[in-house]
Amino acid sequence: MRIIVAGGTGVIGLSMLPKLVREGHEVFAMTKDSKANKFLKEVGVTPIQADAFDSDAVLVAFQKVQPEVLIHQLTSLGSVNLEDNAKIRIIGTRNLVDASKAVGVKKIIAQSLAFVYEPGSTPATEDVPLDFEAPNPRKINVNGVASLESAVTELPEYVILRYGLLYGPGTWYDKEEMIGQQVLKGEVKATDSITSFLHIEDAAQSAVEALKWPSGPINIVDDEPASGKEWLPVFASVIGAPEPEKEDGSERGERGASNAKAKKEYGWTPIYPTWRTGFKLSSKK
Are 131 and 119 in contact (CB under 8 A)? Predict the structure, then answer.
């Protein structure tokens, strides 16, 4: 298939692109600049330059490529700025969907989130509503996700990958990155909030497998939702950080998510079934 990937040079994209090429697909990566062109060409991917916020440039790129499938992995994770991420989910997605419709793209696979469900006492399944009643700043995230998910349903086929909290090399949970550094400094407390994690390799692999999946949202998370009191001490130990301080209480909606549907109905099996081993294996890479 002819596939165009938006966000192909992010941490998920860099893992996903070679997988798509090995599967025999003709792959194009839409990038804002040419910094990653050398890498893209080395792995067999054709770079196409366009800024996702420039609707005309996106349309021109799609007209050149004439893709059958769009994989949407655009995020803005350079800093903790919910507004930036919401903007790219709302405006960037709108431009990608409009260009896709203009050139007859058949299917879109889009990155979403598995931690914006409404509050509950058990891990959320896909039929649980998003947390539309959330206050800010959480509401910013929810609105961005809702806009993205609504827009992608305009295409004939769509798979919405609701990812868990990403960890692994190049993510915030890398020892050298933001959360890793905060944990090393003892700035993160272990609370009762439940998190569902996802290794970037599993995020990338699920996007490849989703080419064959039916339309709809699907939780892509590991097998073990866990409270901060469970996972944070393990993570701290792996990166050589001090034992984290514990604090009772949890944040709104931090309930984790269930991957039962992905495993039972789609046959998806995570490479890293649990953060318990995933943290340790990632730290060795």
Answer: yes
Residue 85: predicted pLDDT = 85
Indicate the pLDDT class of residue 78, thresholds 50, 70 and 90: low
On the CB side of 225, CA atoms within 13 Å amount to: 23
Number of Cβ within a 10 Å radius of residue 243: 11
Token pair 């596939």: residue:
3
Q: How far apart are CA 113 and CA 96, in angstroms?
A: 19
Kindly state the tokens that stand for 197.
Answer: 């994690």
Cβ-Cβ contacts under 8 Å for 232 (sequence gap 6 or more): 183, 188, 189, 190, 244
The alpha carbon dihedral of 84, 163, 137, 117 has a sign of positive
Q: Which residues pair with 113 in a beta bridge?
A: 163
Q: What is the pLDDT of residues 170-216, one digit of tens each?
A: 999 999 999 999 999 999 999 999 999 999 999 999 999 999 999 99
Residue-wise DSSP of 198-234: EEHHHHHHHHHHGGGSPSEEEEE--S--EEHHHHHHH
| Contact predicate 191/227, CB 8 Å | yes
- Residues comprising the chain, all counted: 285
Q: Does residue 110 have a pLDDT over 60? A: yes
Measured between its terminal Cα atoms, the distance across the chain in Å is 32
Q: What pLDDT shows up at residue 285?
A: 57
Indicate the pairing of strand 194-195 with strand 226-227: antiparallel
Could you give the 3-state DSSP secondary structure of residue 114? Answer: coil
Task: Please give the C-alpha separations between residue 257 and each of 199, 263, 267, in angstroms, as whole numbers.
Answer: 15, 13, 17
**Which candidate, 11, 12, 72, 7, places its Cα nearest to that of 205?**
12
Instruction: Give residue limits of the domains in the chain.
Output: 2-166+199-222+258-271
For residue 281, is pLDDT > 90?
Answer: no
Using one digit for the tens of pLDDT, what is the confidence trace for 156-173? 999 999 999 999 999 999
Domain 2-166+199-222+258-271: which CATH class?
A: alpha beta
